[in-house]
Specification:
It is built from 4 helices and no strands. Helix content is 87%, strand content 0%. The model has no long low-confidence stretch (mean pLDDT 95). The protein is mostly helical. The chain has one domain (2-101).
Length: 102
């Protein structure tokens, strides 16, 4: 289970970075430099990471009997810019608790 939590944390960081790159780099390139390919490429990458994050969040929710509210928080974190970074803080604390119990 700790492995899934670790993967969720990694996916969250990657998803958060891709979201910020999409918003702060690819979108301005598209609209100011008239180059839409940046949004196409980064958008696909972000979409894949978004789905992976939600899939892993669901797996952790199921394995650890987390509440629907916990999953809702994960979902909300994934749609807010930099939200996954704040959610990662909670996950890191939980991972430390699990490691201490081992």
């Amino acid at each position: 289970m700790n492995k899934k939590l670790s993967w969720l944390r990694r996916a969250g960081i990657a998803e958060g970075i891709s979201f910020l790159v999409l918003l702060c780099i690819a979108m301005p390139v598209k609209y100011f430099l008239k180059e839409p390919m940046a949004v196409t490429v980064v958008g696909w990458i972000h979409g894949i990471l978004f789905v992976a994050f939600l899939f892993l969040a669901w797996e952790v929710k199921t394995d650890r009997n987390k509440s629907a509210k916990w999953f809702g928080t994960a979902f909300l974190a994934s749609i807010l810019p930099a939200g996954t970074f704040f959610f990662d803080k909670k996950l890191k604390e939980e991972e430390a608790i699990i490691s201490d119990q081992s």
